[in-house]
Amino acid sequence: MKKVVKFGGSSLANSDQFRKVGEIIRSEESRRYVVPSAPGKRFPEDTKVTDLLYACYNKAAAGEDFSRELKEISDRYYEIICGLELSLSLEEEFQQIEKDFKAQAGTDYAASRGEFLNGKIMAAYLGFEFIDAASVIRFDKNGNFDADKTDSLLAKRLAKCERAVIPGFYGAMEDGMVKTFSRGGSDITGSLVAKAVHADLYENWTDVSGFLVTDPRIVDDPAVIETITYRELRELSYMGATVLHEDAIFPVQKEGIPINIRNTNRPEDKGTLIVESTCRKPRYVITGIAGKKGFCSINIEKSMMNSEIGFGRKVLQVFEEQGINFEHVPSGIDTMTVYVHQDEFEEKEQQVIAGIHRAVNPDFIEMESDLALIAVVGRGMKSQRGTAGRVFSALAHAHVNVKMIDQGSSELNIIIGVENRDFETAVKAIYDIFVMTQL
Ligand code: ASP
Fold first, then answer.
1. What is the pLDDT of residue 49?
2. What is the CATH number of the domain that holds 131?
3. How many Å lie between the centroid of ligand 1 and the Cα of residue 383?
């Protein structure tokens, strides 16, 4: 059994958290490859080290004195080192960082130091080998991630190594120039390492006990999802549920390696297992509910639209030309409605309307704003009668007016459009009918 374990910033925010992590790693021989993030927040108002690094480098780039900011960062690391009673010095590393900042080494380099330094501490604490991610995670000369090169570099390097710490979030181009992934990118590094070593499991340790059936800001203490497929996860994350970086899924999914989301503060919890497919029945008919506010709909009517070949394409082309993404396009015989993000659309509104008039000469166009979309996701829905019925009777009982319904052909989700102000009520009502009534 071979596991890759990634620990998020809150799991490594101070020496107490480091100790918990150490215990978790030492409790299983199979936890051989460790991917740490930079130290995160120790308390809600705290600042993540990555953010301190960005701020510090901004000063350096502006030619201002950044010694106070750099000292604040080194204090964070020394707090951890002293708390763990390690005899490690990061003196040389900090001298190098100061020099590189003065030489304007770049924002990505600056941000990457958070993981680099934390990786050094983690390796010393565990007695594992330290492998600089710059030597194994590769970006091409245009700065795009190079998956094939990375996979072969990682596989080759780790084949020689029983146990190692590989810092998350960054890599380098061929010429050594450091590049980072987007924020939260240590999840991606963990996934790449898991793929390269053909791990049996990729454990992603964070500060929640897995994915929750819905947003805890809407429903108190929602149930945890025990097993979720990659496709279900994609649907939920797209609608705003975030625990894992989106790009972290692809590398392991391709290899059929499951991801287990675990809680560093509650290692006894099993967390959520993310798998390619499973015959395990979900505990409730639905797997999760997620949603977002801030959409608007553009309703286009034209009589005999149904017999006008190319109508839909011409309308959507107008959105494309204005660089606007569409979310859903429910249609009727003589109507077609396009759902878009309100903030993206507002600026281009009049150009789009004029464009549609020119392209298809509609009878009229009507717009509605302040709408929310809710996705009810679940692989279990396919084989269950009455799921849609339950969703809509719950919404009717909660006095929520449904503006749009879209059941994807995959039968993996039902998308419901409601007014922004009904959003929370609707999510609660759906949660209650599927989860609360089953407890
Ligand atoms: N430290 C980086 C961030 O704060 C990357 C990560 O934590 O995954 O975004």
1. 98
2. 3.40.1160.10
3. 40
Last residue of a domain, one of 173, 203, 233: 203
Averages of pLDDT over each 10 residues, the chain, 439 residues:
97 98 98 98 97 98 96 97 97 97 97 98 98 98 96 96 97 96 97 98 95 92 92 83 85 93 97 90 87 95 92 96 93 94 95 96 95 92 86 96 85 92 97 85
Q: Decide whether any atom of ligand 1 lies within 6 Å of the 167 Cβ.
A: no
Domain endpoint, select from 183, 203, 223? 203
CB atoms within 10 A of CB 438: 10
Kindly give the pairing relationship between strand 288-301 and strand 335-341: antiparallel
Listed in sequence order, the residues at least 6 apart from 180 whose beta carbon sits closer than 8 Å to its beta carbon are 108, 111, 112, 169, 170
Task: Return the ligand 1 atom nearest residue 180 CA.
Answer: 5
* 156 CA → ligand 1 middle, Å: 26
Question: 173 CA to middle of ligand 1, Å?
Answer: 19
Same domain assignment for residues 187 and 292: no
How far, in Å, CA of 253 to CA of 435, rounded? 28
**292 and 199 in a common domain:** no
What pLDDT sits at residue 439? 61
Do 193 and 298 share a domain, yes or no?
Answer: no
Q: Any idea which residue has 């934390």 for tokens?
A: 118
Residue 114 Cβ < 6 Å to ligand 1: yes
Closest atom of ligand 1 to CA, residue 189: 8
State how far the Cα of 204 lies from the Cα of 263, in Å rounded to an integer: 9
How many whole angstroms from 39 Cα to the centroid of ligand 1?
Answer: 9
pTM: 0.87
* CATH code where residue 413 lies: 3.30.2130.10
In the chain, the number of structural domains is 2
Can you give the residue range of the structural domain that contains 358?
A: 288-438
